[in-house]
Amino acid sequence: MKNLKLLLIYTLAMIFVSLFPVVAYGTNIRLIIDGQEVHNMSASPVIIDDRVMVPARDVFERVGGVIGWHEGHRQVTVRYADDVLVMTVGLREARLNGQSIMMQVAPIVIDDRTLIPLRFPAEAFGLDVDWCETTRSAIINSDGEYNGNGDENGTEIIPLPPSTVPNEPPNNIYESDKDELPWEGAPNELPPPNAILVAPEGNDLNLARSVSTTPITTVSHPETMITAIRTPQETGAAAYVVVASSPITGANYFVLPDNRLVVDINNAISLICGTHYVDTTVPISGVRASQFTNTAPRVTRVVFDVVGSAEFSVGLSADRQVLTISFSPNRITEIIAHSDTTSDSLLIQGDVLPSISISTEGFPQFITINIENASIETIGGIVPNGVFASHFTVGQRANGTSYINVFVGNNWPSFSVAHSTNAVVFVMHHGITGVRYDSTRRELLISRDFAMQIDNVQHIDEYLRYRYTVVLPPSADVIGRGELSILDGYINAVNVSRAANGDVLLTFNTSRVLTFTVHENADYFIIRAHLPREIFPFIVVIDPGHGGSDPGTSHNGIVESHYVLGISQKVMQLLNADPFIRAYMTRHDDSTVANPRRAEFANNLEADLFISIHVNAVDAHLTHVHGIETWYSISAREQAGNHNIDSRQLATIMQRQKIDATNAHSRGLFAGNEIVVLRDTNMPAALLELGFITNIEEAARMRETQFQWQIAHAIYSGIVESFATHPPNR
Fold it and tell me: Are 447 and 480 in contact (CB under 8 A)?
């Protein structure tokens, strides 16, 4: 019944959203392009959240663009010069030249006409856009230099079947994180407070590196307040600026193995928290600030997610009130094309190792190599005797990205990418045949040159390793062996290998947690990559506390890390049987997982709820203390989100469900503002204490299988109730 109620509420919520968009129908909204007013448009412009929405063809075909529409995926494609923009009805996320970009409003359908936001794509293509309130006119000016080469009906997107949501999650075979490596600092050196204890891939040349020449000295000053973080857009330079209300005592910074630059400002209180504007002219994919410690001397922490091996410097102003973190763009100085009888290659050389991504939106004409935070100082050329490619062109986008368009015609090569100190080698070869990747829709297309029943395809989801394997039958061996580099921001590469029993393994190495579905049409088997939130109505992360080198507390025959793992596995059994909920765990065995990594895993997953499971203990002379309690923290990160439930409401539901199921003594709710997994998660989170193992009677009951299932059912019921009564905003 609870599942039926959950589905009903979710369905009604979705119907409500779809039936009642917040639309302001403008009166006589005029559209003026290059001085000429556009009349007789296919649909009237409207205003949504102060954004003008227009029919795509009426605007962009008039300035030389080419428009495509794919009904099955509800996608509009706008190609203008060398730029390709893909937008999906109902989604704010768009893809510009293969890179994910968030729009202020999503495309909509009104009276069977698709309307898209005007300013975002126009400015992305370098057009000037203005709004005149007195005449209620949207004004666009183009340079008139580009003439589209498509026919008047636009470019047809290859029709593919629409996505289908599986009735249940894929069959999962989990694998542990048991090969995590310890911190490899100096013999007596402790890891940084939030170090992720994993080995970096490749070598240190792939990480950001400091070129600071002046050390930041420590000078005693009274505690200061961090009042602002100014972005490159505000500073006018490739730098972020941290502003303090009074002189800063000192600052430390270091780069973690996952390429996060951590800047700790000592003796400082943060008046700002959460995520901040990311300017694409610098090699940063995320910026966030928090109050890292709340005991004197307090520390404010600012974290930059650095893209590639960018050079940076950190400096303090003379009055010690401004901390500047500067990033240098990478100069691409040379591109050398080479070909032999089996492959083509491009050597892309920069000051430091270029950070690239690959976009296939331009196929079948060309494949695009995007180089982030780079200025290109060389020209295009031919690929002599190219097996796949004929020539390449280069260009520079306004967002600081350089690009190389490699013209391959209808040829589809396998890709591989190799790195050196300051160069990337992009290789096109014959390693895999009959397979190509469409970055527009995150789909791997496999020619139907073999027989396969897609319902029999197996899935192996190793999400803690960011690895997902699709198992095909032995007949798929015709596609060959090797690795196809994808580098679209979601999938790094897919490796094609063969198992001992002859099955063909397609192993996707991903940059974030993805799930995959398998489809087919007359020409292709289609393996489609999804963000979990795109196909699962509700997502929850279950966090078994402690583990590995941190066993937690241990009394009366119970070791906390082992006990909570067993409870978590029972909860997962219940959740995995629920077709509407997709559940993930932060560990599957007795592995060591740093607390910041647990929070970051949930944040990257964009989970709806986070549940951390623990048991309690007190000093030996307080063995009479007993009962169940729940902790919460309504963090700045959570407040910045868009949730229908907060952490205290979640904790209230979870506490009541636990008490109702076990009849245990209720110790109530507690605020845990300093608990990392509550403080640093972006979604509503609760930490559950299941009882005191220092109490002999309570510990004995907790060892009983019946109690363990009672508490597991209570946790499951609390999650279901939270989703049913407060469905997430999607």
Answer: no
The pLDDT confidence band at residue 6, using thresholds 50, 70 and 90, is very low
**Can you name the residues that pair with 371 across neighbouring β-strands?**
356, 402
Distance CA 483, CA 264 (A): 40
**Given CA atoms 666, 667, 671, 673 in this order, what sign does their dihedral have?**
negative
Rg of the chain over Cα atoms, rounded to whole angstroms, equals 27
For 680, other C-beta atoms within 10 Å of its C-beta total 23
Interacting residues of 189 by C-beta distance below 8 A, sequence separation 6+: 183
Banded pLDDT at 85 (limits 50, 70, 90): confident
Please give the structure tokens belonging to residue 629. 């309690």
The CA distance from 511 to 583, in Å, is 19
Q: What percent of the chain has pLDDT over 90?
A: 42
- Does residue 552 come out as left (phi exceeding 0), alpha (psi in the -120 to 50 range) or beta? left
Closest Cα to residue 227, out of 239, 244, 240, 247? 244
How many whole angstroms separate alpha carbon 147 and alpha carbon 149? 6
Of the spans 253-257, 325-329, 488-492, 632-636, which averages the highest pLDDT?
488-492
- Rounded Cα distance between 654 and 689, Å, is 11
Check residue 368 and give its pLDDT.
94
Asked if pLDDT for residue 70 goes beyond 90, the answer is no
Model-level pTM greater than 0.90?
no
Any idea what the Cα angle at residue 485 is, between residues 480 and 487, rounded to 5°? 155
* Residues 337-380 pLDDT 10s: 999 988 999 999 988 778 788 988 888 889 999 987 788 999 99
Whether residue 297 is preceded by a cis peptide bond, meaning omega within 30 degrees of 0, is yes
Inter-residue contact 384 to 454 (CB < 8 Å) = no
pLDDT greater than 50 at residue 215: yes
Q: What is the mean pLDDT of residues 139-159?
A: 40
d(CA 155, CA 597): 44
Burial 41-73 (b: 16+ CB within 10 A, else e): eebbbbbbeeebbbbbbbbbbebbbbbbbbeeb
Would the pLDDT of 718 be above 90? Answer: yes
Show the tokens assigned to 465: 């390793």
Nearest Cα neighbor of 404 from 363, 441, 359, 436 is 359
Q: How far apart are CA 514 and CA 489, in angstroms?
A: 12
- pLDDT surpasses 80 at 218: yes
Whether 572 and 546 have beta carbons less than 8 Å apart is answered as no
| Burial (CB count <10 Å: 0-12, 13-18, 19+), residue 381 | middle
Strand 299-306 with 284-293, pairing: antiparallel
Using CA atoms, how far residue 85 sits from 78, 326, 440, in Å, is: 5, 30, 9
pLDDT digits (tens, 9 = 90+) for 522-579: 999 999 999 999 999 999 999 999 998 889 999 999 999 999 999 999 999 999 998 8
Q: Which has the higher per-residue pLDDT, 592 or 503? A: 503
- On whether the CB atoms of residues 483 and 493 are closer than 8 A, the answer is yes
Rounded CA gap, 84 and 361, in Å? 6
Determine the Cα–Cα distance for residues 57 and 691; give it in Å rounded to an integer.
63
Vertex 696 angle, CA 692 and 701, to 5°: 75
**Which secondary-structure segment (H or E) carries 428?**
strand 423-429
CB 675 within 8 A of CB 596: no
Q: What is the DSSP string of 490-557?
A: SEEEEEEEE-TTS-EEEEEEESS--EEEEEE-SSEEEEEEE-HHHH-SEEEEEEE--BTTB---EETT
